[in-house]
Amino acid sequence: MTRPCQLRLAALVLALANLAAVAAISGSESEAAASDTQIQRATDRHRPRSCTATSGDTTEIATAKLTSSSTPANGDLGVHGQFDDTGWSELCVFDPSGRQILAINPHRQLRDLTMASLFFESREPTLDEFGFADLARQFPEGDYRVAEASFDGTQLVGTAVFTHHVPAQPVITSPEVAEPHGGFAHRVPRAQPSVISGSARLGAGASAADRGP
C-alpha cells in the first residue's frame, strides 16, 4: 500500500474513533439527563404542595370532615375524610402541627375540569395492628387545616376537627328481636319503628363498657 493510501486510511480510522467517542459522550449525557428527569419527577411527587390559588380571595370550604372509624364487631380502626365544594384543582390537608398529610393534584383534562367532591376511607387494620394508642400518636386530636385552589382562582380554606370519639356498636332495644325460626330470624315489621341506642365515647381512653357488646 502506498504511503498516501496509508495516510488516508489512518485519517479515516481516526475520524471513526472520534465519532464513536462523541456518540458515547452523547449517550452518557442523555442517560444522565433522563436520570435527572426521573429524580425531579419523583421529588415533585413527594414535595409538599401549597394549594395556593391565583387570587387573594378566600372562601370557606362547604364541607371539611375528618373522622375516626371503628367497627367493634370486626375489631378494626381507620380514618375517613370528606371534602366538598363547587370545584377545585388542588386539595391539601395539614395536621395540627402543620405537616401535610394529604395532597390531591389532578392532571391534564381532569385538572381543567376540576373536582367537586372527595370522600376517602383509609385501610382499616385490626386493633392488634393499629390500635387507639397508634391513632392517638399518628393522628392527634385537633384542627386539621384544609386548603383548596378553586377553579376560579379563589382560595378555599377550612378546618376539619378530628377527635378519637368513635360511636360504639348500636343496640336495638325495641322491638325485641324474634328468635330464629327455621334458621332465619323474623324480620321486624315495617310499621314498627326500631329504637337504637349507642355510645359515642369509644376511643383510646374508653372503658370496655363504653365499647358496648
Give an account of the 3D structure.
The relative contact order is 0.15. The chain has helices spanning 3-46, 108-113, 132-138, 208-211; strands at 58-60, 63-71, 76-94, 100-104, 115-121, 142-150, 155-162, 171-174, 195-197. The longest helix is centred in the N-terminal third of the chain and has 44 residues, at 3-46. The radius of gyration is 31 Å and the shape is elongated. Strands 1, 2, 3, 4, 5, 6 and 7 form a seven-stranded mixed β-sheet that branches. It has a two-stranded antiparallel sheet with strand order 8-9. The chain is built from four helices and nine strands. The chain has three domains: 1-47; 58-162, Immunoglobulin-like, CATH 2.60.40; 167-213, no CATH class. Strand 2 (63-71) and strand 3 form a beta hairpin. It is α+β, with helices and mostly antiparallel strands and 213 residues long.
The ordered string of helix (H) and strand (E) elements is HEEEEHEHEEEEH
Question: What would you call the structural class?
Answer: alpha+beta
- Put simply, the count of helices is 4
The CATH architecture of the largest domain is: Sandwich
What is the CATH class of the largest domain?
Mainly Beta
Number of DSSP strand runs: 9
Counted up, domains total: 3
What separation lies between the terminal Cα atoms?
Answer: 102 Å
